Amino acid sequence: MHEIRFVQDLAFIMVVSGLTTVLFNRLKQPVVLGYIIAGVIVGPYTPPFEFIQDRETIEIFSQIGVIFLMFSLGLEFSLRNLSKVGISALVASLIEIIVMIVIGYFIGQFFHWTPIDSLFLGAMIAISSTTIVVKALNELGFKKEKFVQLIFGILIVEDILAIAILALLSSIATNESVNLMNVIVTLSKLLLFLIVSLTAGILVVPRLIAYVAKFNSHEMLLITVLGLCFGFCLLVTELGYSIVLGAFIMGAIIAESAKLATIQKLIEPLRDMFSAVFFVAIGLMLDPHLLIKYWAPILVITIAVVFGKVITCAFGAFITGRNGRTSLRVGMGLAQIGEFSFIIAAFGMSVHIIGNFLYPVAVSVSALTTILTPYLIRSANPLAAGIAKFTPQPLVQICNLYTSWLRSIRLQGDSSAVVKIIRINFFNIFINLAMVAAIFIILSYVADYEYLLKWKFINATNIDNFLWLIGLIISLPFLIVSYRKIKLLSRLLVRYSHNLESEDKGKLKVKRFISEIISALAMVGIMLFVFMLSTRILPSTELLATLLIFITLMIALLWRWFVRMHVHLKNRLIQSIKKHKE
Predict the structure, then answer these.
(1) In sequence order, what are the residues at sequence separation of 6 or more whose Cβ sits closer than 8 angstroms to the Cβ of residue 97?
(2) ∠ at Cα 475 (470, 481), nearest 5°?
(3) What is the pLDDT of residue 433?
(4) Do residues 335 and 306 make contact, with C-beta atoms less than 8 angstroms apart?
(5) Calpha distance 387→390 (Å, rounded)
(6) Distance between CA 124 and CA 488 in Å, rounded?
(7) Please, is 368 exposed, middle or buried when counting C-beta atoms within 10 Å of its C-beta (0-12, 13-18, 19+)?
(8) By the 8 A CB rule, do 199 and 431 touch?
(9) Sign of dihedral through CA atoms 189, 195, 198, 202?
(10) What confidence score (pLDDT) does residue 302 get?
(11) What span, in angstroms and rounded, lies between the C-alpha atoms of 575 and 582?
(12) Which among 13, 168, 484, 538 is placed 20 to 30 Å from 282, CA to CA?
């Protein structure tokens, strides 16, 4: 009986969606709007009777649609492009989130809602909808435009910061106060997870896909890719993060495969079908009676979302050097809320600290802003041209001077080369230490399952010692390379602090000595970092001294081998990225 209801529901959704999409396509209107209208037509709030019987299964299908949309976004995303828009994305995201939380709070207070309801409202309208934006940009044919990369960068930063917002709200819900350390730890763990998963994924996954592709079977390739996507999403949810983030990361990793074009063609039909169900599900939740009852808050919040996000995102893009037209297009593309708003509202309801009305209000605002999104994106260019006509010439000159000034203050020549070397080395040190941290965190987690590790030659008393030693040995290539990079940076620091050509040999020796001291102190700090990470499995003081002597001898004997091992891993990573480019 359940199967018949499900087939009936899916049939209604697909038939009505097909009709509405054809109609909206003929009228040259966004197809996304057609899906939402289809959801309203077959939804429970539209007479004469309810078409959909199994809402729960349709909701599951809609979540699969989110996974496919985000996975497809990852496939089209370039990590190199993210590095180009990183600062702009971060600045625009922070400005938008902070301002929108404040606006949401004051709107809630204006309608005499409780402070907690107002705070949750601010959080719900702070994060734009990646799913809706991706679909709208694809549909309008804008995904190859330059400004779209900045939009994607802002959306990624927002999704990461949304995790911190959830941690902050969770702290408020449980302790009725803000635990800043909780938020910092949550963000640190998330950043560590992103670095390790991307690095390890790019090393392994493209090679696995290349192996499967040798069989020349699209079926095998598709099933392998889907297994990687859904398996990684499961891992991400087990770690307490969003499915949205997991699907995107795996898409970005698989994007480095040489078989990217084939994979995109295989995924596209699945993405289109399940994403249609997702947008229909939004229409199913749209209650016209609720729109009438809460019309004033819904209208005010919708206006605040549209104008607030357009202004804050455009301002954030402009102050980081984007021209006015690009900044406006970025702002117009981010003026909506979506899946994260539902997550935040559902969390507040699950812990019983917000009113039941907030969730349907969020759904209504999301539906209205989703309807407006394609029109806003499409009207960005004409609006920019109109604003340019009526903007006073002195103000235009000031804006042009500002963007020109930002370009002019970039370092050039030798200074630029030195800064680039320093930046690359700092980045390498950061990545290597992140890998070390991941190794010890994983081993500390493994140590909690002692019953799996009790082999014949290892008993319960020395499992921790064994894991710590293994962790340090695995970490040695990363620690040795970090030391080499720190040494290089310290020498650069000393070399460029004064004019060495005018100094005698005695002063040069002193500066080299200072360079060695800086390197040694940095390594002491790194070892303290390792000890701090491994407190769960750290050996006793006596055994620790013995193990450190053993490790020191190993480093002395195998130094070059460890360096070659790291270089080999690094080259494999670079080759994986180059193969994708070729």
Answers:
(1) 126, 127, 158, 161, 165
(2) 155
(3) 80
(4) yes
(5) 5
(6) 46
(7) buried
(8) yes
(9) negative
(10) 92
(11) 10
(12) 168
Q: Which residues of the chain have pLDDT under 50?
A: 411, 413-414, 456-457, 499-502, 580-582
At residue 580, what is the residue type?
Answer: H
pLDDT of residue 573: 57
Q: Phi-psi region for residue 28, left (φ > 0), alpha (ψ -120 to 50) or beta?
A: left
Distance CA(108)–CA(120), nearest Å, equals 9
Tokens standing for 23?
């109609």
Is the pTM of the predicted complex or chain greater than 0.90?
no
Per-residue CA distances from 143 to 135, 172, 515 (Å)? 10, 39, 49
Long-range contacts for 192-195 (Cβ within 8 Å, ≥24 apart)? 192/434, 192/437, 192/438, 192/441, 193/239, 193/241, 194/160, 194/249, 195/430, 195/431, 195/434, 195/435, 195/438
Rounded Cα distance between 157 and 97, Å, is 11
Secondary structure class of 321 (helix, strand, coil): coil
450-459: long-range contacts, CB 8 A cutoff, minimum separation 24: none
DSSP state of 206: H
Ramachandran quadrant class, 78 (left: phi over 0; alpha: psi -120 to 50; beta: rest): beta
104-143 pLDDT per residue, tens: 999 999 988 888 888 889 988 888 887 778 777 877 777 7
Per-residue exposure over 419-454, b if at least 16 CB sit within 10 Å of its own CB, e if not: eeeeeebeebbebbbbbbbbbbbebbebbeeeeeee
- Looking at residue 457, what is its pLDDT? 47
Q: What is the pLDDT of residue 83?
A: 64
Token pair recorded at residue 185: 């730890």
The amino acid occupying position 456 is K
Taking the alpha carbons of 372, 378, 379, 381 in that order, is the dihedral positive or negative? positive
Rounding to the nearest 10 degrees, give the CA dihedral for residues 536, 540, 543, 545.
90
- Give pLDDT, residue 309: 92
For residue 490, what are its two tokens?
């310290």
